[in-house]
Amino acid sequence: MVVIDGKAVSRSVRERVKQETAELKAKGITPGLAVIVVGDDPASAVYVRNKEKACDEVGFYSEKYALPASTTQKELNDLVDELNARPEISGILCQLPLPKHLDDKEVIARINPIKDVDAFHPVNVIGDYHFLPCTPAGIMELIHSAGVDPMGKKAVVIGRSNIVGKPMAMLLLHENATVEIAHSKTQNLADVTKSADILVAAVGKAKFVTADMVKPGAVVIDVGMNRDENGKLCGDVDFESVAPKCSFITPVPGGVGPMTISML
Ligand code: NAP
């Protein structure tokens, strides 16, 4: 069994992006990211700060718009329109969640799909990708780093959220895996998960996937970020019992988590 080192793969992705950015700059092109954050959600503030830091590290130009919680839909839409029109801004990201009086679907749909770096715009969600969604794209990178080719393999994704489960299934399908998506209404879940050569858990429940749900030799990817009964960060997979059965497994922390911003 090999534990996939998300931190190391994440570092190598950033190195690659830094090099590619230097090559683009030599041709007079600087990638520019605009990040919009509305209100004072503390978790959003941390995510946005980390994204700004990552931009600096790889040499992107970046702009941050920290708008007050009282921002109106029109003001937000107008800002998106302005950023859509500016050539030095190649990517626009609106940090979610937005305050309750704002419609996130309206904002996302307004971002030009070719600048939609989160890949949340409907055009990107249906798989006509201009950008890949960060977390699932990071998982594909981890799978490749382990030398695993999804082609012809049975993949099961537990979870069908728009941010993780659905795009994850699409990316595995793009790489010719035979994909099944499980969710809270799935019957005999363990029978489904036990058929998986590649099992991705994106459930949001601490230690939900146990050894009896995993096929011997499976590649197990744990997307979950939960707290256990002692308040310790843990994944959706019961790592202790599952790891000995796997060929490859991602830990939490240090697996999928470090990949997300690097992929962005
Ligand atoms: P979500 O929107 O809450 O979706 C959870 C999915 O799990 C739903 O599709 C739900 O099914 C399914 N589910 C819930 N209980 C189930 C059960 N008993 N059996 C089978 N399926 C069940 O969560 P999310 O946004 O996809 O995130 C999932 C986890 O990944 C969370 O822990 C989140 O914190 C983490 N996450 C990590 C990163 C990262 O960068 N590491 C990024 C994003 C998310 P229904 O659709 O039927 O309700």
Mean pLDDT: 96
Strand order within the widest beta sheet:
1-11-8-7-5-6
Present as ligands are:
NADP nicotinamide-adenine-dinucleotide phosphate
What's the Cα radius of gyration?
19 Å
Tell how many strands the DSSP assignment holds.
11
| Range of helix content | 25-40%
How much strand content do the residues show?
15-25%
Global shape: globular
Distance between the termini: 29 Å
- H/E series, N to C? EHEHEHEHHHEHEHEEEEHEH
Provide the low-confidence segments as ranges. none
Largest sheet: 6 strands, parallel
Explain the overall architecture.
The protein has helices spanning 6-26, 42-58, 73-85, 104-110, 122-125, 134-145, 165-174, 189-193, 239-242, 259-263; strands at 2-3, 32-38, 61-67, 91-94, 154-158, 178-182, 198-201, 219-222, 226-227, 233-234, 248-249. It is an alpha/beta fold. The chain binds NADP nicotinamide-adenine-dinucleotide phosphate.
Index terms:
single chain, 264 residues, six-stranded parallel β-sheet, 11 strands, binds NADP nicotinamide-adenine-dinucleotide phosphate
Could you give a quick summary of the protein structure above?
The protein is an alpha/beta fold and 264 residues long.
